[in-house]
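I'm curious: can you give me some protein's one-letter sequence along with its backbone structure tokens because I've never seen that pairing?
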Amino acid sequence: MFCDNLKSPPYAVCKQGASAIMKYYRDLAEKAGVRRPIISAAVIGNRMAGKTSLIRTLKNQKRELTYRDESDVDDETTKVFEVNEVSLGDTTLRMFDFGGDKVYHLSYQLTIRPSYIPIVVVNMEQFDKLASTASVEEATRQLCMDFLSHLYLPCVSLGPPFLVRTHTDRLSSEVYSSRKTELLDAVERIRARMIQEEKNSFSKRKIVRKIIHFTTNDKPIFYPELIFVFSNSTSDVSNIRSLLQALSVRCNESITVIPFVWEQIAAFIENQADMPFLLVEDIVKRFPSDKDMVVVRFMHNEGRLLWFERENNLRGIVFHRVSAITEVISILFDHRNIDLWKRRIQDFAGFAFQGKAITDAKYKSMVNSFEATGTIDECLLMHLFSQQTFPKDVAISLLQTFYLICGPIESKPRAKYIIPYLSADTIQPSPPASGLLRVQTAVVFVGVPPPSYVYHVLVVAFLNLFTDPRYQIRAASNGASVSHGKLITTLHHNYRTREITLYTDTPVEQLDHAWKCVFDILEAILNKLKSVWIAAHPVCKFFCSHCIYSGEIEADCEVDPDWYTPPENPDTDPPLTDRLINFSGVEPVACCNDRSNGGPLTVPSPLRFPCR
């Protein structure tokens, strides 16, 4: 394991292995290296925390506030993320301003690198209101600790974070003094509980305990000298200077020496501002010396560009303008602004798609359907992207690769895509229809809870198993339901309770198919979970179908039973259905629901155990 504090060669080089290190020293010997004075910071926090205002304040060295009105075309709220540069003497600090809306949180995992400076912004007025209505710990989790998890889980070696408390003048001095103490105390309690819960987990994946900063027990998460306060006062000058100075010190600690030829390649790539992305083959043609893409990979490791080398659909593309990806995500997920869709309908000009005329009425109908169901007609999707500089096929590949949309699903008159997050519908659990059995399991998360966007990614992973046009799909903001043959399979999630419920309703003669369906889906979502939230420790509960059928208030269940083995290594483990014991015949088994003086019930084994 390489130390990420290395300056020569930097960690972003060491991460590639011995061949990259040797190339670094060879290229450095050819011509003197250059000091790279560009450092990156991640500014994170809830919606309306004041992140954008903070960055503008640092950039202009005077207190700046951001205009926010989602119904206004001049709304300055950050969509996905934006990149701004702040000059700190000889150093340039590249600041990633991450949008606080939950659907944008996926971008943290795509862009955060070990060299980043973490800056957490907490709106103390929001904190006070949430602490009053829920609890101090819930307010701390939602406004602070969840955001720290976004940063430190993909990059366990990040240094100590900055904390910026904003909107302090909205509270009285007495309330503010009390709340700031409660915030810091709750941070330490939650940190200790996260580590203890992971220690108690049977899973082999111990990620939180690998976070260097979290496990430094003799120091708090937020060092006192890295805590800053910003009110909305335009005369707040001393705090601006103090924060700039502290950032300057951290930047100077991170400056490294880079071979001259590497910086030439980097400068060329970063200066292609008129291109939405570059092709790997074009970079290799221009710079044959980097045919192994060491420099491009180095820039990706540093966060200066994005290259999804391991994704088949995207490995031939280099996203040298990191913020260009925001165009793709925000065009679909900027959904709160109802007036935006009204303006699109108002400004609509008829066009032809696949040889058929799209009228005003048809366009409005597609928009209304999309807003209600989260299902978007291929025609509407292509029309939205046709107004952008980003190529449509690459945009769709991005959305598919990161499980933001499901599809295409062939249908009449055109293919469709599904975005469960945008559906206005919700799924409410209900008993199975008369005469049907239900095979049900629940996935409960202990340790660091996945953020809300992860649940939506898992719904897309679920729907990706049902892209055959014969399936009837109902997408919802909290899950989805699919009718396939005589089976009806439903997945719904609850971020508050950290739980996903999955069940298939089936005629008794297809009970074996229902078991297989549940396990195939369970394996798909758990495998996807490991790639999007590595700290997850899922516990699986399997419920008694007889209890559900007979209407018991609480169905008997087993937690991770002996016949079930959660997948630890998705790439090497055999399919889950192959690892199950092959139950045969119908034997009586015990159910813990005691419905009579005669003791526990006995039920047919296929109602409790997988059968073929």
